[in-house]
Specification:
Length: about 120
Amino acid sequence: MGGVQEGESKEDSVTPDTLLSLPLGVLTAERIGELEADRQALEAQRAGLAAQTPQELWDADLAAFLDQWERSEAVAAGAAAAARKVRPAAADDSAGDEQPPKAKGRSKATKKKIN
């Protein structure tokens, strides 16, 4: 119940109750036109996919993957280059592993003189 049964289209499953439960803003002519345009675009896309062979679909997916891979590799290489530029500057600051001498607290004798 409630779902579209096999062999039944979505248009057949729309009931008056479904239409009455929709918000009024959904039923505007502009929104209906947008939905019709979306439906036509999707049908054209489906027809284009159905006309392609599995090998053509595989090749298109592989090409899209490789394109994305190359872009992500370029971004990673740019980030690595930026890190290399920053890293030597930080290495120059810490060239010596020696810690600077810590300031010593006042001696007991100095504390007594102050108080």
